[in-house]
Amino acid sequence: MKPGSLFLIFLAYGLVMGITGLAFYGLAGFSQGGTDTLITPDLQLLNDPYIIQILLFSIKQAGLSALLSVLLAIPLARAIYFLPRLAGRTLFLKLCLLSFVMPTLVLITGLVALSGRSGLLTPWLGEDWNLYGLQGILLAHIYLNMPLAVRVLCQQLNHIPDTSWRLAQQLKFNRWQLFYRVEWPAVQQTIWLLLAFIFVLCFNSFAVVLALGGGPASTTLEVAIYQALKYDFNLSEALTLAWLQFLIAGLIFLVMARMGKVRWLSADTHSQRWQPQWPVWQRHVYSAGYYLSWLVLLLPMIALLPSVIDARVEQISLAVMLDSTLYSLLLASGSAILATLLAWWLLLAVRHAVNVHKPGWRVLFQWLATHTLVAPAMVLSTGLYILLLPLIDLERWGITWLLLLNSVLLLPFVVSQIQPRLLQFDQQYHYLAQNLKLSPVQSVQVIWPFVRPVISSAFSLALLLALGDVAVFSIFGGSERMTLPWLIYSYAGSYRIAEAALVSLLLLALCAILVWLFERSYHRPVKGTAAAPRNSTSEYNKQET
Amino acid sequence: MDWKNKLLLSLATGLLLFNNLTYAGIKTLNIYTYDSFVSEWGPGPQLEKAFEAQCQCDIKFVAAEDGVSILNRMRIEGKKSKADVLLGLDNGLMEETRRLGFVKTHELPLDHLKAELNWQDKQFMPFDYGYFAFIYDSRKISQPANSLSELINSDVQVIYQDPRTSTPGQGLMTWMKAVYGDKTAEQWQQLAGHTVTVTKGWWEAYSMFLEGGSDYVLSYTTSPAYHAVVEGHNHYKAALFSEGHVTQTEVAAIAHTSQQPELAREFIRFLTSEAAQKIIPVTNWMLPVIDQVELPDAFDQLIQPEQIGFSPAEIAQQRKQWLREWRRSASQ
């Protein structure tokens, strides 16, 4: 490994681990009475039946959310893969991305307008329907995460090489064997990963649980941490709960992520796909499910429209709206760029571990790179805030920390997007590249066409997620300028609910435009890829023809 | 992509430069407050303009998320705090702030304040207050509940805020305790039977209500005034309860760290002046703390409840235990 890369790796890991370390230190080291001892976790809490109840509920809702999201996503992804004649398949995948990045507060408004007490759909949902409670939480979590699973599974299915299908045909596999021998191996590892990923996202869920939970019975650890930190300023309780969350989410993620053996399928994504034909009835059932999901995903967005009609547009300052839009884009692109760069550097270490066949190191590096997925975001932001506030002028430097923290929180998403493609590249070309003794510039030139599509999609995912950030902004954002989500909060916080709905719609539209732009660039042919690896060129050619 | 990035970068640099411009020569008064107070449509901008016209100073608002975040910020900053004035704490936070020694005595007369406030505090000055109340839509409900117990023992759908995370929620908790004392737990259970949801903060609950999510929502007696003055709608009304209502009083104080307590004191005096008291009700949607303030007619239509409740000291002392009672009985 070259000293330059080594330096960048150290820098990236130092930063990522440093932020978490500093945040925990900020909480533990804070002394109110002037004593210098570290605050220790309060283990008594583990005997509190209330905490146990919270813990069990967190696990239950996260487990159910993950399971249902993935179970629903599997048939949808198969429909999209096996039925090329379905209308609007690419558009549907874009919609999936939009659903996944949809700011939760926009989704909640949509769901309430749709199936709340006087929702548009409520009359048809039966007498006993009640949005609030476990069902509401699950509904929102499935809405947010099932589309992600569909996208990922589709991608994975697309990697099944033609040759596998041909071979299966020659062996006269029946439908069950086709599924078990061809499809399952292609998605198995991804399914475990998805389950783990969605579990952790829902385990740490905050806004959805509070808005749709219906009462104190539905409380997650994150909510308890928030309460301890904010309303009681009880740092030792917050720390205990944070460690608990960190450990449980971290363990579950680690175990599940390790479940499936890594099995790299052929990288080829051919233009001429050869697939088995499905019987007619199956095609009909799957198509119906597919078109139904179109409706389901669109409805919460459409439901926002009626409330916008009340908005007093003349009261909304166009300048403020434009300014917030620009500011949101600026901050989000900053975080996304930083996150992508960091992910690249962090993955250098993971790739090296794979190339020299050190699976233990690979897991460690990978875990460190994505550990912010399981670290409670509330603790990271508050811990840093407590540490930094007395030391530096946050009015001035707040934005820098906001960018840093946001990018670190985005890392799990970016890393998981880029990593498979990079490992694939190494598997195929690492030795060749080594033998050719490429200069750093040359090696970037070689790898770039291969990874450009995933980098672009990882960046756009990061950008979209960062656009929805409220948690970090509420702590580090200055009061002079507002981002769009913050503008929604300000409107809603001063009775201007219809205006808040209007801005929500604007935010959603902005996300939709970005999704459209990035997905377009993803599929655009790249010039000058003649020297690029065969696979990527063939992928682009597919799009051109 | 490239030119767009460049454009964004140059925009960013421009903004940074702009932010670094400082006003030279005049005193700066740092006021810690909460977000919605200084938002474009909140009282902040108008108060700033009015006060700066008379003080030869520059007001700098530092906005935290909400009242309790102001207190937490003071805790974290300790002696290094730059705050001159703490603006927007409420009666639920007063005792804790006092105990931590974050405020100085204001040494201002209190006799101009409304008699019903019965205000004697030497450190905190009230600048607005409101009664908690359940709001309903009179187009849908013609016979509103006349008492808290009628509401609790009916089957109407209610949304309120989490007392762990929001001040109205905490207000309801105090209200329940004031009315039911030792028997509060059963009443929470009864209420839970027809509670639609408990939200994190005020606006989540209120917007759900406006979208038809419930029959009643916990808010303030002043909420109907907003709808009347800004939207011209008169159908949102507050239910008057025979047991009486509890209040939330928002207060300001001089920070212990202030290097210019005189200027801070001037600002606090200004807050209860007629000029400021005319601005606050129609921007923060609470009641003025002095009599004879000229306000839109809608304020005359508001219900006039009887005041009940506990002193700040009592609330501070028992809050934890009340919360435990709530979460036990409301989660069944």
UniProtKB/TrEMBL annotation, chain B:
<protein>
    <recommendedName>
        <fullName>Thiamine-binding periplasmic protein</fullName>
    </recommendedName>
</protein>
<comment type="similarity">
    <text>Belongs to the bacterial solute-binding protein 1 family.</text>
</comment>
<keyword id="KW-0813">Transport</keyword>
<keyword id="KW-0732">Signal</keyword>
<dbReference type="GO" id="GO:0030288">
    <property type="term" value="C:outer membrane-bounded periplasmic space"/>
</dbReference>
<dbReference type="InterPro" id="IPR005967">
    <property type="entry name" value="ThiB"/>
</dbReference>
<keyword id="KW-0574">Periplasm</keyword>
<dbReference type="GO" id="GO:0015888">
    <property type="term" value="P:thiamine transport"/>
</dbReference>
<dbReference type="Pfam" id="PF01547">
    <property type="entry name" value="SBP_bac_1"/>
</dbReference>
<dbReference type="InterPro" id="IPR005948">
    <property type="entry name" value="ThiB-like"/>
</dbReference>
<dbReference type="InterPro" id="IPR006059">
    <property type="entry name" value="SBP"/>
</dbReference>
<dbReference type="GO" id="GO:0030975">
    <property type="term" value="F:thiamine binding"/>
</dbReference>
<dbReference type="GO" id="GO:0030976">
    <property type="term" value="F:thiamine pyrophosphate binding"/>
</dbReference>
